[in-house]
Amino acid sequence: MNFVEELRWRGLLHDMIPGTEELLSKEKVAAYIGFDPTAESLHIGSMVQIILLMHLQRHGHTPIALVGGATGMIGDPSFKSEERKMLSEESLQKNVAGIEGQLRKFIDFDKGAELVNNYDWFKDFSMLGFLREVGKHISVNYMMAKDSVKKRLETGISFTEFSYQLIQGYDFYWLWKNKNAKLQLGGSDQWGNIVTGTELIRRIAGGEAFALTVPLVTKADGSKFGKTEQGNVWLDAKLTIPYQFYQFWLNTSDEDAEKYIKIFTFLDQATIEALIEEHRVNPAARNLQKRLGQEITVLVHGEEEYQAAIAATAILFGSGTREQLEAMSENTLLQVFESVPRFSVDLNLLKAGVNILDLLAVNTQVFESKGDARKMIQQNALSINKEKYADAAGMLTESALIAQKYMLIQKGKKNYYLINFS
RNA sequence: GGGGAGAUAGCCAAGUGGCCAACGGCAACAGACUGUAAAUCUGUCCUCUUCGGAGUUCGAAGGUUCGAAUCCUUCUCUCCCCA
């Protein structure tokens, strides 16, 4: 099975320039994807792009990962309804460094693969030079006709953002010329920018280049993929702890799980089909979600963190009781809850007896305010140490402690917090 | 340049002097049911609260009034028609 066939059955193929498949089947190709340094870490939306490069490498082609140190200074207007805020150069540098570090975890840059930053070839490119060498080849009419900027032509777009596709187009030209990159990959929203690049390559050098895009990952219920109540799901363990990361995948709907297991894992077709079949017979077991969570958590955070995440899951969502919590050693307890958000509170506060509302809304931020806490408690949404707690006027003392120093707070069914008294 | 319509909470949207912290819908959060799912039902949903209330809202600033989302003045912005 070749690269394109692989993408096709996995549902990772959206569009290609004619000839792309032939090119990939007859030679080993260097192909690139750009990553925007909009944050210090990539999130699971970018995971699709990373996996694409990994597939590419597995099929013997050469991946080039580009971090947009230059393009990040401009801001991609594609399908955005508003002008973007410019990032400071300082945070941009931090973001570039963060993203480069993450990419190294997934792609083996020793085997001919490259990690580049377009700032390197733009930093000494003069404005006049750019206008004469690049701008002259592409007409404004051509640039305005793109779907990706159409909306913005009505509501307003700065010259800076409008020039974005030209900058990205030049990246492609530069990599084509200097790194022999004949193909650019990207999300379907990048089609317009990529094609500006192939056009530029043809007009400047009479060369031929290709494009391949992957579909946007969607959810069956129409809401945005990759978001939870807590916000984005990041690849950085400090921003989204592995337990929450695993939980995100475990919570995917049946319909989405069938789609995601093909996109986000490297399991072969027979294995995946068997898993889907099994899941359809017994959806309640959620083996599909569990396997999906396992594969991608191991890929992103490693086996150890995955084990910790399922251990925590088993305790938190299994038939855990206060007795079981009490029976755990402090070490086990800490390991299990390593990945649960935690707060530290002075033990003396508890010794003196503390009001439940104060503890959860003032001394810690489990709830936003005392009013919020009271309402939640009245709605029966609070558990302490796996036991429902319904008294909004209640006082807590040392008797509520586990292992003499911990208290496990549960807001609703899924939100856990550990308070550490010392 | 002339004429008209409009701006209400995260979004859509009702409200034209007191009964308005503002109908309804969506989204969100919680409860029940379940599989940590979907669908359904129930509750919450400006902020704080000792749950009695208190404070700040209806594009902005002034004004009228005992009382203004609602009336008047000026300003800002959006849309439509004509030129």
Strand-helix topology:
Blueprint: H1 3-9, E1 15-16, H2 20-26, E2 30-35, H3 44-58, E3 62-67, H4 89-106, E4 114-117, H5 119-122, H6 127-133, H7 140-144, H8 147-155, H9 159-162, H10 164-179, E5 181-187, H11 191-205, E6 210-214, E7 227-228, E8 231-232, H12 242-250, H13 254-264, H14 269-281, H15 287-301, H16 303-317, H17 322-327, H18 330-336, E9 342-345, H19 347-351, E10 354-355, H20 356-363, H21 370-378, E11 382-384, E12 387-388, E13 395-396, E14 406-411, E15 415-421
Parallel strand pairs: 2-3, 2-5, 3-4, 5-6, 9-15
Antiparallel strand pairs: 1-6, 7-8, 10-13, 11-12, 11-14, 14-15
Helix pairs in contact: 10-11, 12-15, 12-16, 13-14, 13-15, 15-16, 20-21
The structure holds one RNA strand of 83 nucleotides.
